[in-house]
């Protein structure tokens, strides 16, 4: 899997290829969005990372869609994004007037709990990825934990969401493959609630996207209040100090397979999707508009000003990633359920 730090030349080539393979837009579809509104569903509450990305993207994306529709962001939190994904999959109109973004842990929910997930990610109309993600497990230095080795000797309370949310599964995976002693308290609903729980010392730490740490609690970084213990997904060179990556700390094949499955969420990152079954020409319009937005200098400047990461990927790359992740995953899923006590 390629990390987020590909060269500008490579990214430019990818988007050029994508642009040359977009089907021509028929006349009726070219005027479809004129005067219309697109609902942009976010599978988390207001104020979190997914919400921030959606609200920054929406006005720029609208400019590149023929007809310049209005894009309105609507939050639909629940079950780590699976509520929103199921709604888009089965309920939302399949005409291009609804797009969505949800926590990428929804892919893990689909793999680990298929009987309760009512969607197939491979069938969504994928639009593109704004950024891959690097998750960082961090705790307050006041906890007495400074390194991952310290976390193997002393129990510390970490906040998480649902059983299959990344914020829960990442510290549980560290316990299973590294021997850490994180006690994961689950049930936080996302958005900024876990950070608030840290401030109130209900918990001492959490995993969170590095981009979200920088945006939502920059004072913690500025004041050096946090110990950064572990990173998940593409390595981020902007992290302070030498923060170990979980994939570099495991050697057993079964452990590496679990890390690979978990990290699919980081590589899928902040992705935008539409319901399955959209007219091909309309999906092509959305993809083309997304790719143009990713190359737009004003959008890049706005992302930088908001301190949000921009490591874009095309819909074709997402589809290839999902196909690879879906192949022969049952054995790894069972191993993960057993080792992380998720049954």
Commentary on this structure:
The protein has 343 residues and is an alpha/beta fold. It folds into two domains: 8-133 and 267-339, Bordetella uptake gene, domain 1 (D-Maltodextrin-Binding Protein, domain 2); 135-263, D-Maltodextrin-Binding Protein, domain 2 (3-Layer(aba) Sandwich). It is 42% helix and 15% strand. It has 14 helices and eleven strands. The protein has helices at residues 8-20, 27-30, 49-64, 82-90, 106-112, 166-178, 193-199, 210-216, 218-222, 253-268, 280-294, 297-305, 315-326, 330-339; strands at residues 37-42, 70-75, 98-101, 125-129, 135-140, 156-159, 182-185, 205-209, 226-232, 271-274, 313-314. The strands form four sheets. The chain has a three-stranded parallel β-sheet with strand order 2-1-3, sandwiched between helices. The protein has a three-stranded antiparallel β-sheet with strand order 10-4-11. Strand 1 (37-42), helix 3 and strand 2 (70-75) form a beta-alpha-beta unit. Helix 3 crosses helix 11, helix 6 runs antiparallel to helix 10 and helix 10 (253-268) packs antiparallel against helix 13 (315-326). The longest helix has 16 residues, at 49-64. The radius of gyration is 20 Å and the shape is globular. The model is unreliable at 1-27 (pLDDT under 50).
Topology readout:
Elements: H1 8-20, H2 27-30, E1 37-42, H3 49-64, E2 70-75, H4 82-90, E3 98-101, H5 106-112, E4 125-129, E5 135-140, E6 156-159, H6 166-178, E7 182-185, H7 193-199, E8 205-209, H8 210-216, H9 218-222, E9 226-232, H10 253-268, E10 271-274, H11 280-294, H12 297-305, E11 313-314, H13 315-326, H14 330-339
Parallel strand pairs: 1-2, 1-3, 6-7
Antiparallel strand pairs: 4-10, 4-11, 5-8, 5-9
Helix pairs in contact: 3-11, 6-10, 10-13, 10-14
């Amino acid at each position: 899997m390629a990390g987020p730090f590909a060269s500008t030349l490579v990214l430019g080539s990818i988007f050029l290829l994508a642009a040359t393979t977009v089907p021509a837009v028929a006349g009726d579809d070219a005027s479809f969005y004129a005067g219309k509104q697109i609902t942009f569903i976010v599978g988390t509450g207001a104020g979190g990372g997914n919400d921030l990305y959606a609200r920054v993207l929406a006005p720029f994306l609208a400019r590149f869609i023929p007809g310049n529709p209005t894009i309105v962001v609507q939050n639909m939190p629940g079950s780590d994004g699976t509520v929103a994904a199921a709604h888009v999959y089965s309920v939302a109109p399949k005409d291009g007037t609804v797009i969505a973004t949800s926590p990428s842990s929804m892919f893990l929910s689909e793999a680990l709990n298929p009987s309760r997930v009512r969607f197939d990610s491979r069938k969504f109309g994928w639009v593109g990825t704004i950024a891959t993600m690097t998750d960082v497990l961090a705790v307050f230095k006041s906890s007495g934990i400074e390194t991952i080795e310290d976390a193997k000797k002393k129990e510390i309370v970490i906040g998480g969401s649902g059983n299959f949310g990344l914020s829960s599964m990442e510290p549980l995976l560290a316990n299973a493959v590294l021997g850490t002693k994180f006690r994961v308290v689950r049930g936080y609903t996302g958005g900024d609630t876990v950070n608030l729980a840290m401030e109130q010392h209900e918990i001492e730490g959490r995993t969170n996207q590095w981009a979200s740490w920088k945006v939502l609690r920059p004072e913690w970084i500025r004041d050096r209040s946090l110990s950064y213990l572990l990173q998940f997904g593409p390595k981020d060179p902007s992290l302070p100090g030498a923060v170990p990556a979980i994939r570099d700390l495991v050697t057993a094949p079964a452990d590496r397979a679990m890390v690979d499955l978990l990290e699919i969420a980081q590589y899928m990152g902040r992705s935008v999707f539409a319901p399955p079954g959209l007219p091909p020409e309309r999906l092509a319009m959305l993809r083309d508009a997304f790719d143009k937005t990713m190359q737009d200098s004003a959008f890049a400047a706005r992302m930088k000003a908001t301190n949000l990461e921009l490591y874009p990927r095309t819909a074709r790359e997402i589809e290839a990633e999902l196909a690879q992740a879906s192949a022969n995953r049952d054995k790894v899923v069972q191993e993960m359920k057993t080792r992380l006590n998720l049954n």
